[in-house]
Amino acid sequence: MAIVPLKKMIAICHYGGEFETYEDGLMSYSGGDSYAVDLEINMQLSGFMQEIAEAIDSTVDGMLIKYFLPGNNKNLITVSKDKDFSRMANYYKDSDQFEVYVMKESSPAKTLKKKPVHRPQKTQPETQMVAVLPPADMGPPNVAPLNEVADIETVNEITPAPTPISVNPFPMPITNNEHVGAKQWENLITGVGQRFHSLAEFREALRKYSIAHGFNYVYKKNENQRVTVKCKSENCQWRIHASKLSTTQLVCIKTMRPTHSCQGGSIKPAFRATRSWVGNLIKEKVKDSPKIKPKDIAKDLKRDYGIVLNYSQARRAKEYAREQLLGSYKDAYSELPYFCEKIMETNPGSLAKFSTHEDLSFHRLFVCFHALISGFVQGCRPLIFLDSTPLNSRYQGMLLTATSADGDDGAFPVAFAVVDEETSDNWHWFLSEFKNMVLGHGPITFVADFQKGLRESLPEIFGGECYHAYCLGYLAEKLNNDITEHFSHDARRIMIEDLYAAAHAPKLEGFEKYMEDIKAISPEAYNWIIRSEPDHWANAFFGGLRYNHMTSNFGNYIYSWVSEANELPITQMVDELRGKMMQLVYTRRVESSQWLTRLTPSMEEKLKTEMLKVHSVQILRTHGSKFEVRYGEVIDIVDIENWDCSCKVWLLTGMPCCHAIRVLESYGRGAHDHCSRYVHVEMYHLAYADSINPIPNVERLMDVEFDDAAVIVTPPVAIQTPGRAKIRKVVTGRVGPADFLKRQLQCGKCKGLGHNKRSCKEVQENSQSSQYETMS
To answer: What is the CA 73 to chain-centroid distance, rounded?
Structure first.
């Protein structure tokens, strides 16, 4: 029994959610996704179910379709045969659309005994797949309906032929010379008598064949034994019927009308090019080029096959292909318990620890390898940079990092965590786990933003054993955003440069000088800076040692690692980062074994630079271990016993300044002996002495049989909005004012920022006032 709608109708198909039953017996549906499927002329239940299966990227096996009668939300009606399908369409014949609920197996609605009767109004999801509807005035095609197999099998228009049959006499845009990939599919369907191993193979061949010849089709019958298909264009004569041969699984084309009486059409990816199908099509491309971008995938598919995808469709297809190659993103979370055990088993002394929410959804994962924490404790400066970067995986999240600085000013990763979102609680947890790994280390200087609860968490966890240096880059950016006064780009640039200069100034008088310069431009900015706790960021006041590192985004190379690995399932992403760290440790160990200097190369160069200035330094007077020296017009005091100079360079960098070197030479002492121990090659070797070991068979963790009592971790609840997470831009060198201070539009009339004279409200208001006065 076929459905013949009098006008265009569309079915809103809900899938993946659940029902709730209220005290009054009424039911509501929440969660899941919604898709739009149009009701075709003469459509049957099998064809409708196939349309839904392709929309939700599933199969018709075990599919259940249910609906509510108009005005009755208490009883779900099941559609199990064509008669039910016809009755449902008849109930809603006066509507433009109706709702159906798609299930794979029976799921009883849960009862909420004390749920109030008043329910919030249900809204449709923001994104839906909208199918193209036929014109409302278009009637049934001028051909016999394909309701019975006998009607098809008596046609017998084509006899088997060994040569390919041309089935479309009209020129199709898909078959031009550009679409070389689709051309190989032109002869997948050859005509009556052609055999296939299964109906699934026939359907796949039909899909590719339609792409190659540029037309869409609909199923008139789509059953376990037979399939009948016609061209989707109205009044087109093209159709095909195939069924299983008796007592075998082979499928044979029984009848076929090869000629299109329509002009063909363009491929509608939302209808035929499903996520899984396109994903399988591009699987080899993704395997050969894992970093290929979705926009390049869409470009290649349009060029090779004529298939047009938008960015989101290409991204989802790539995600599916990666899942097929690397494993499921969802399954990777359930592997976490075993994965953490393997990390600690293969790398003794390491810590891999995860936690979940009450519903067992992923919350956070902390990883610290023994080789890295040992290298930090034995060979790195007591300096930790705390930072975060967003992930671009299917479930997104954030990566929290703790990075140190080795003796050659290279970034040294110490620990990291994957969390569902960046919150004060997650930072507090991360720092607590980190402290357990560095117990007894002594005072540590942390360079970090003061947001996300770090200002409170650091002293609470580490007490007096830490110093918190505010990230100068974050401070400068916040100042620029908080200033409400109108300033030109150059004025703002000068203020930010003065802020940097004030932060680096080693002495109080230098700090005050730059602050007065800022005050002359903006008293508001001056007051803001005074209230920003300079004792946490200005060298003139800061009590800890940060070796002249002023910003928290010290480990820029880690962001490049993340950009390469963050689309992987969580276990493989972590293992990819482990591999990068393992290679970093090995490479630096090998390179440093060739060093012949006492200091690391970069520090040796810095010391040589200071030594070249020695001839211009004069020793004026001595006071025990203290010496008064002059460099140009500046007089400083050097205390060689306490490794200090009033210029503060020795203290701030751990390297003797030219004043100290001059005094040391006068006493016959070597400058190398008075450099911080952390910049010596011996300490560098200690930092990279231990190795990170590989974790075998990470890609096959799911082959392991888990205990019944094992925790099954589920993916995190999506926190961020759909779309790509913005990965931090990788920059080289130290971050300065020019790295974030972008030139803004400035109005030539009111001097305000963010607009020009044409869009200035003040100009528009004045213009309106003038017009009003003229009319008066």
So the answer is: 40
Q: Are residues 526 and 605 in the same domain?
A: no
Residue where a domain stops, chosen among 509, 536, 563: 536
Is residue 216 situated within a structural domain? yes
The torsion defined by the Cα of 645, 646, 651 and 656, in degrees rounded to 10, comes to -30
Question: Is the alpha carbon torsion for 762, 765, 771, 774 positive or negative?
Answer: negative
How many domains is the chain partitioned into structurally? 6
- Comparison of pLDDT for 413 and 442, the residue scoring more: 413
Residue 18 located in a structural domain: yes
283 and 240 share one domain: no
What is the b/e burial string over 676-692, where b = at least 16 CB atoms within 10 angstroms of the residue's CB? bebbbbebbbbbbebeb
Let me know if 435 is exposed, middle or buried by CB neighbors in 10 A (0-12, 13-18, 19+): middle
Q: Which of 360-364, 706-710, 714-718 has the highest mean pLDDT?
A: 360-364
Do 157 and 208 reside in the same domain of the chain?
yes
Identity of residue 646: S
681 bridge partner residues: none
Q: Residue 628 pLDDT more than 90?
A: yes
Within a domain: 377: no
Residues 42 and 104 in one domain: yes
User: What pLDDT was estimated at residue 705?
Assistant: 54
* Burial class of residue 262 in the structure, from the number of CB atoms within 10 Å of its CB (0-12 exposed, 13-18 middle, 19+ buried): middle
pLDDT digits over 96-105, tens only? 788 899 887 6
pLDDT tens profile 107-155:
444 444 444 544 444 443 333 333 333 333 333 333 333 333 333 332 3
Domain that holds residue 168: 149-257
The distance between the two most distant Cα atoms of the chain, rounded to a whole number of Å, is 118
Domain assignment present for residue 95? The answer is yes
User: Can you give 405-464 as a three-state secondary structure string?
Assistant: ECCCCCEEEEEEEEECCCCHHHHHHHHHHHHHHCCCCCCEEEEECCCCCHHHHHHHHHHH
Tell me, yes or no, whether 252 and 201 share the same domain: yes
Within a 10 A sphere around the Cβ of 580, how many other Cβ atoms?
19
What is the Cα–Cα distance from 682 to 620, expressed in whole angstroms? 36
Q: Which one of 536, 569, 590 terminates a domain? A: 536
Residues 252 and 299 grouped into a single domain: no
E strands, 22-116, are 27-30, 33-38, 64-68, 76-79, 97-103, 110-111
pTM for the full predicted model: 0.65
* Residue 701: DSSP 8-state: G
Residue 42 sits in a domain of what CATH number?
Answer: 3.10.20.90
In whole angstroms, give the CA distance from residue 380 to residue 367. Answer: 19
- Tally Cβ neighbours within 10 Å of residue 551: 22
